[in-house]
Amino acid sequence: MPAEKTEYSVGELTHYIKFRLEQDENLQSVSVTGEISNLTRHSSGHLYFTLKDEMASLTSVMFKGNVMQHASLPGNGEKVVVTGDISVYPPRGNYQFIVRTMRRAGLGDLHQQFLELKARLEAEGLFDPARKKALPRFPRKIGLVTSPTGAVIQDIINTLRRRYPHLELVVSPAKVQGSDAVPSLVMAMGRLLKEPGVELVILARGGGSLEDLWPFNEEGLARAIYGYPLPVISAIGHETDFTIADFVADKRASTPTAAAEMAVPEEREIREQLNGAAQALQNSLQYFIHYRRQMVDDYQRRLSQALENKLSQARQELSLLEVKLQAADMRKPLAQGFTYTLLNGQPVTDPAQLKEGDQIETIFQRGKARSTVESTQSFEN
Amino acid sequence: MDSSTFSLETALNQLRETVEKMQMSSLNFDENIRLFREGTEIVKNCRKYLDESELMIRQLIDEEKK
Asked: Domain locations in chain B?
């Protein structure tokens, strides 16, 4: 700026200030710690807030593009670490902090580690759904890795006992927090492999702070779960907590009780289904037998019917033959002197059939005679 | 009847054939009587087999309930 006193417009001066501030490397890409207040989310998607500490406050803005890259953002009153650049907003004549990233202070380091490890293990394929082992449908023996004290172990034991009373449960106790938790958990899992017949392992821990749950975000445990030959159900912390162990495990349960429900079916339900199936089987067999009986009865009826038809045919033939036989016997009376009379070839049994002048034939045993009727007379009865 | 080799379905087929043969008008009476005897014997065997099967099923069900 020239040494001489010159008159500037407000715009010129403001732009000079903006230029100076934005040129200063100490004010660009800096991280600032402070508490959030006056947080407003504008309809444009930008986030406006003030960062402050005991000494000062800093007007801040996070633009929509950066907001969208954060899964969750802290609220008013929370201590955060933001990274961004100092800039000037000429219309208002104020300087402000343009925030690019924001994380909660304190948790930040662990959270960062968590995200990095998660990204690395995911890229390596440790969370690959295709690598996840299927749970056995009807396990006879399962292992439980958890703290031997506390509500978790009790919840799981109660749920397993209620649902599946015949299950054999092997508890392998482990430390679930602190610096030696990971080796303790890995050893506990290893002990279950020496126990013959274990088909599935539940890895459980109750709720706690991020620091408390931290062993379950350690790479050592993640790799132990990944390389474990048995299916693993994880139930770590509360429903909203997700740990690396949850991502690597074959199944993630939101609570210890849910893990137990996932591990075993309800025995009562299975028994009911089985009974239903047995009943259906009996019914269909009984129906089958009933149906076959009807068929046999029907065939028997048809056999009798067919025979009776033949029988009545035979009877008819027989009576026909009987008539013929009787006709054949007519020759006997002729031998004794009886004759019989025909008119036009038809037998005459009553003189009323005849009238005067009819030509009749009389049959004898050894011949016949032709004659003409003179008169007829019927006998009175 | 040998119940280990008896086949209900085969027997029912034989019965059907027997009835059809008896219904043919060309067959003589003696042949019909013979077929009727044969058919009646098959009916008896079928009933015996069904009775035995039903009994066996009842026993299985009772055993299962124990």
From this structure: 8-65
